[in-house]
Amino acid sequence: MTQETVYKDAGFGASVPRGTKPAILVVDFSYGFSDTQYPTAADMTAEIAATRRLTDFARDAGMPVIYTTIAYTPLEAESLPWLKKATGMAALKIGTRLVEIDERCGMTDADALIVKHGASAFFGTNLAAILTGAGVDTLVVTGATTSGCVRASVVDAVQSGFNTLVPADCCADRAKAPHDANLYDMGQKYADVTDSADVLAWLQGIAES
User: Fold this and answer.
1) What's the pTM?
2) Catalytic site residues?
3) Which residues are CB-neighbours of 105 under 8 A, at least 6 positions away?
4) Which parts of the chain register pLDDT below 50?
5) Which residues form the Isochorismatase-like domain (predicted)?
6) At what angle do helices 151-159 and 176-189 cross, to 10 degrees?
7) Domains, the chain, ranges and CATH?
């Protein structure tokens, strides 16, 4: 029995309904993840460019665009259990360049910025309140890393009541194997994994309706 058959027979992989009030979430495209002078980073040039095509359109169409960054105080860097496992993340200190959003993203003052202290963009933040207040029914999740903060944010998005889309070419990771494995798993259990061209066409259709 093939993997696809196992998942299909178990009832996974159904399509996610798409609403009419989308928002774009850009997870951790900060220099600590995107500038390869830092050991925590990888080359995310293509993924940032693909994401910007979505955010530029969404913003112009009046759709919410929300960025996240991980940033720690010295006490948090010393005490949080996650940083005892993922020790490299402790370099993401408040006030350093590593936690600034990469300028190639084109973030503007009109966008929201959420500072988080763990993997999920929802845990311990007001993201769900922002989305609910804006009437959002469908969340497009992009950013880094696919196997870490993107996945955690996607799982919490679904658990917070939002239909979720993941354009694969807008998600970056440090290695291909975890990137591919997590996209597959998200696509089976939590979100529709698609691409930026599909998402952009959908956003354009909403804007024109």
Assistant:
1) 0.97
2) 149
3) 26, 29, 48, 51, 52, 55, 67
4) none
5) 23-198
6) 10
7) 20-208 (3.40.50.850)
